[in-house]
Design brief:
Number of domains: 1
Structural class: mainly alpha
Order of helices and strands: HHHH
Helix content: 55-70%
Length: 69
Amino acid sequence: MREVRKNYLLAYPKKSDFTQAMSKWVDNPNKNTSIMSQAISKYELMPNLYFQEEVLKEISAYIYDTDFK
């Protein structure tokens, strides 16, 4: 989770952009739109989790706000 957060923070430092981008990607995982291609190569593409958009945004906001030390 630390690496995911780190990569998304580098690409999307503003919380609103971070949560929007992460939510959109998790809603529709796609190798071509991933910002973590090395993780996909190592672990494969994650499956679609079928959460509602609002739930994905809440999860993304939590990840943004949490320092996973």
